[in-house]
Amino acid sequence: MVFANRIAAAKQLVAALSEYRDKHPLVLAIPRGAVPMGKIIADELNGELDVVLVRKLRAPGNPEFAIGSVDESGWVYLADYASQVGADKEYIRNEVSTQLETIRQRRSEYTPIRRPIDPAARIVIVIDDGLATGSTMLAALHALRAKQPAELVCAVPVAPPDTLEKVSGNADRVICLSTPRNFSAVAQFYMDFPQVTDEEVITILATSGQAH
């Protein structure tokens, strides 16, 4: 399955998530790419939109390749192959510090006049535009599970089967529209996959009614 763009993927996810309509779900998008999708899903389900801030940990010399992730609390998920690609303890410590600083900056930019919406006792739907290694989603789910939501749902348009299996143990429910085995990158499953800017994220959150 190939999606025209993130908007088309979000509309298909709305249909898959229709049972949560009018149950006031908290839709948490992983910035930046999933934020426009989260806006559509939150609006269609009559829920609330916010972001969950997690960052991938980049492999030495290969910033596009994830060796793990870190969430806003500082919890670190590390893939078992991290050491095999040259990530020693000092490198990981420095990379975690760098990504936590980015998280702090984004929080101050994205929601400057309010605290994150509390997921406790809420139906929480975590959105991303696709999963590759799943490390970022794992960090997001871990961070949210600690805050005791009533139900924790992972919803994505596309992911390889092995990644879905890895993620499924960390959510109450996983919804994925397409699970191709021939998977190299999320972008290959979109006809149009532009970068989403920080400015777009800030505008969406401000106009969603959640920044007031």
Tell me what the structure shows.
Keywords: Transferase. This is Phosphoribosyl transferase. GO terms for molecular function: transferase activity. This protein has 212 residues and is an alpha/beta fold. It folds into two domains: 6-55 and 115-207, Rossmann fold (3-Layer(aba) Sandwich); 56-109, Ybab, Chain: A. The chain contains six helices and eight strands. The protein has helices at 6-16, 35-45, 89-110, 135-145, 161-168, 198-207, and strands spanning 26-29, 48-51, 54-59, 62-71, 76-78, 123-127, 151-158, 173-178. The strands form two sheets. The chain has a five-stranded parallel sheet with strand order 2-1-6-7-8, sandwiched between helices. It has a three-stranded antiparallel sheet with strand order 3-4-5. Helix 1 packs parallel to helix 2 (35-45). The protein is globular. It starts with 5 loop residues before the first helix and ends in a 5-residue tail after the last helix. The model has no long low-confidence stretch (mean pLDDT 94).
